[in-house]
Design a protein that fits this description.
CATH architecture of the largest domain: Alpha-Beta Complex
Structural class: alpha/beta
Low-confidence stretches: 219-223
Distance between the termini: 18 Å
CATH class of the largest domain: Alpha Beta
Strand content: 15-25%
Helix content: 40-55%
CATH superfamily of the largest domain: Spore Coat Polysaccharide Biosynthesis Protein SpsA, Chain A
Strand order of the largest sheet: 7-5-6-4-1-2-3-8
Bound molecules: uridine-5'-diphosphate, magnesium ion
Shape: elongated
Largest sheet: 8 strands, mixed
Mean pLDDT: 84
CATH topology of the largest domain: Spore Coat Polysaccharide Biosynthesis Protein SpsA, Chain A
Amino acid sequence: MRKKLISVVVPIYNEEDGVREFLDEQLLPVMKNLKYNLELVLVDDGSNDKTLEKIKKCKIIKAVDSNVISFSRNFGKEVALTAGLKEARGDAVVMIDADGQHPAEMISEMVQKWEEGAEVVTAVRTANTTKHKIGSSMYYGVMKMFGGGKAVPGAMDFRLLDRVVVDEFNKFTEHNRMTRGLIDWLGFRQVYIKVKTKDRMHGKPTYNFKKLMQLAGDSMASASRTPLVVFGYIGAFIMVTSFIFGLFILIQQYIMGDPMGLDWSGAVAMSVFIAFLVGLVLVSQAMTALYISQIHMEAKGRPLFVVDAKKSFKRKVQK
Ligand code: UDP
Ligand code: MG
């Protein structure tokens, strides 16, 4: 019988300080211990430091069949993972971060769960900083509120996917994507394992609180949408202030009988009410426009990423 193949996909962006340590000291020993055929898929997400040179010098490249995909620029982790999953050939595919936060030693447990029948094995973070906790609980709150499907708090991108799940994942065509969310949406037999995350070995995380909110709120910062969003904010401001002002008039003048002696005419109350409606219209208009701009983005049908063929390479281990 053919030995099963396990692929490990790693998105890497500007990790020159830690990438060797992660690949050779954390990942390699774990992979060597797996009694399977192995494949490593590294996605260099347009790093502009020495990351790629460092990768080429790693021992793991010579020890495991490797496929290094180098993007022409930074496309973001979600897209890097997508490219890695497209490229991976494994019967099971493991996704893991290169910054040392995902404990590589858990991979063997993931593989075991997979052998027991799980089709998606998700690592769930146990201990972490308060900042992370607030950030992710807000994120999951927003996801729940807007019907983003069932989401487990603390679930990470550190996952093992069965071939059937990867094949389904590869069918997604949307550009604005969130890997975790899409995998959860797919369903299949999901198993969660608890892991203790570690601190980032080097450098700063590029995914900060703001970026997380952007993902949840659907990247509002992209240049073409900024005007829309500004109108939405103006509308929201008008709505809120006129609502408060209207409430003030109602209570002061009509309920308490004008103790301040302002004696405002009905026209004032009416203008405030109209201002409120204008705010409401602006907000709903901005919401609609956001949906349309989404359609616009997807309708362009651009490629999701661009590979720099000159920098990418494959290397098979001689047996
Ligand atoms: N990463 C990437 N592209 C990016 C940002 C990050 O491929 O634009 C990689 C990064 O090198 C790391 C992983 O994605 O391997 C997680 O990144 P980070 O630690 O910045 O995010 P967080 O841990 O906060 O999710
Ligand atoms: Mg990290």
